[in-house]
UniProtKB/TrEMBL annotation:
<keyword id="KW-0032">Aminotransferase</keyword>
<dbReference type="InterPro" id="IPR015422">
    <property type="entry name" value="PyrdxlP-dep_Trfase_small"/>
</dbReference>
<feature type="binding site">
    <location>
        <position position="345"/>
    </location>
    <ligand>
        <name>substrate</name>
    </ligand>
</feature>
<dbReference type="GO" id="GO:0019265">
    <property type="term" value="P:glycine biosynthetic process, by transamination of glyoxylate"/>
</dbReference>
<feature type="modified residue" description="N6-(pyridoxal phosphate)lysine">
    <location>
        <position position="196"/>
    </location>
</feature>
<dbReference type="InterPro" id="IPR015421">
    <property type="entry name" value="PyrdxlP-dep_Trfase_major"/>
</dbReference>
<keyword id="KW-0663">Pyridoxal phosphate</keyword>
<feature type="domain" description="Aminotransferase class V">
    <location>
        <begin position="31"/>
        <end position="335"/>
    </location>
</feature>
<dbReference type="GO" id="GO:0008453">
    <property type="term" value="F:alanine-glyoxylate transaminase activity"/>
</dbReference>
<dbReference type="InterPro" id="IPR020578">
    <property type="entry name" value="Aminotrans_V_PyrdxlP_BS"/>
</dbReference>
<protein>
    <submittedName>
        <fullName>Alanine--glyoxylate aminotransferase</fullName>
    </submittedName>
</protein>
<dbReference type="InterPro" id="IPR024169">
    <property type="entry name" value="SP_NH2Trfase/AEP_transaminase"/>
</dbReference>
<dbReference type="InterPro" id="IPR000192">
    <property type="entry name" value="Aminotrans_V_dom"/>
</dbReference>
<dbReference type="GO" id="GO:0004760">
    <property type="term" value="F:L-serine-pyruvate transaminase activity"/>
</dbReference>
<dbReference type="InterPro" id="IPR015424">
    <property type="entry name" value="PyrdxlP-dep_Trfase"/>
</dbReference>
<keyword id="KW-0808">Transferase</keyword>
<comment type="similarity">
    <text>Belongs to the class-V pyridoxal-phosphate-dependent aminotransferase family.</text>
</comment>
């Protein structure tokens, strides 16, 4: 059996995104022990860089070993005790996963549903909290990867606090791609992933916990149900060198990669990264509309880094995606849940948010649809995108 050599793909799905050669090179550096003093220094640097990315001074800001789903579970198993009432705002697949986490932790989930593609409605959250005054936690997805919807995290957190509840925020697709201000918005607990707008391989989940969340953790009457994700134990591992205790063997080379990705974000600047994602989203949208394709959702509620595109009648979803992969080495995502077979998810995340990616995607998508007899004016699409870049 030969060594595995992956094909060279252009990644424009819902994640992972393209990884910069600097990050790949960093991950290829020599492995050192997880108790090595040099590694402890790296851990401190990563925490500092993550605080910059999240815009927070929270000391408890670090990457959990595991993908974004592990960061989600860490928030819920640490902050939800059996019997706790949690308001879960659900406007897509990942809000549904929040509900499952609440219930597996022994909590009672009160679900507030919003239409797919729409942002979470602040008034519906307000009404739910008034109806359920015993609720002490609110959970919502800021950037819903399944629908491309962007919710107003600042407003939703304010509503939660006004009713005496803490807020858990899913920022898996948000971090690095759209404005996010943990301290300015007073977010209590937040989690993300490395494989989206940070353009790092999957396998780590940055999290941050504020003072109120830590107070709730310390006041627990029952043990955290997960040993691996118990912050009381994990924090000993991510503390300073003098207080550091062994918990698990960290994914050392993956952390090299995260450090390099965060350095690149720092060099670019948060505001510049947000603006870059917005620019390429506008260009992609202009090109898609020139091919008579429409983005789901409402103006002001769309994620720039995750674009949900309606599939025209008569076009075979799976066949188009396979053509893109076979003929162009280009990956876009299928629809999830209610959108399965009805929409494509086109990611413009991190290194995949570039003019080259936008123009290549428009060309390939137009050609793939034309092969199925659906006329698509690729020239008009490229001209429309270029007009955005020239503005």
């Amino acid at each position: 059996m030969p060594s595995f050599n992956p094909p060279l793909r252009t990644l424009m799905g819902p994640g992972p995104s393209d990884v910069h050669p600097r990050v790949l090179a960093a991950m290829a550096r020599p492995t050192i022990g997880h108790l090595d003093p040099a590694f402890v220094g790296l851990m401190d640097d990563i925490k500092a860089l993550l605080r910059q990315a999240f815009k927070t001074r929270n000391e408890v800001t670090f990457p959990i070993s595991g993908p974004g789903s592990v960061g989600m579970e860490a928030c819920f198993v640490n902050l939800v005790e059996p019997g706790d009432t949690v308001i879960v705002c659900r406007n897509g697949v990942f809000g549904g996963r929040m509900k499952e986490n609440v219930e597996r932790a022994g909590g009672v989930a009160i679900v507030v549903d919003d239409p797919w593609t729409r942002a979470v409605d602040p008034q519906r959250l307000e009404d739910a909290l008034e109806t359920n005054p015993q609720a002490r936690l609110v959970a919502f997805v800021m950037a819903e990867t399944s629908t491309g919807a962007l919710s107003d995290a600042s407003t939703l957190v304010q509503i939660a606090h006004r009713h005496g509840a803490l807020a858990i925020v899913d920022a898996v697709t948000a971090l690095g791609g759209v404005p996010l201000d943990v301290d300015g918005w007073d977010i209590d607990a937040i989690y993300s992933g490395t494989q989206k707008c940070l353009s790092c391989p999957p396998g780590l989940s940055p999290v941050s916990f504020g003072a109120r969340a830590l107070d709730k953790l310390r006041a627990r009457k029952t043990p955290v149900q997960s040993w691996f994700l118990d912050l009381n134990l994990v924090l000993g591992y991510w503390s300073g060198a003098a207080r550091r205790s062994y918990h698990h063997t960290a994914p050392i080379n993956a952390l090299y990669g995260l450090h390099e990705a965060l350095l690149m974000l720092h060099e670019e600047g948060l505001e510049a990264a947000w603006a870059r994602h917005a620019l390429h989203h506008r260009a992609l949208r202009a090109g898609l509309e020139a091919m008579d394709l429409r983005l789901a959702g409402a103006d002001g509620e769309r994620l720039p880094q995750l674009n949900v595109v309606g599939i025209p009648d008569g076009v075979d979803d799976a066949r188009v995606r396979q053509t893109l992969l076979d003929d162009y080495d280009l990956e876009i995502g299928a629809g999830l849940g209610e959108f399965a077979g009805k929409a494509w998810r086109i990611g413009l995340m991190g290194q995949s948010a570039s003019r080259r990616h936008v123009l290549a995607c428009l060309t390939a998508l137009g050609s793939a649809m034309a092969a199925q007899g659906r006329p698509s004016d690729c020239g008009a699409a490229l001209a429309a995108a270029q007009k955005v870049y020239a503005a």
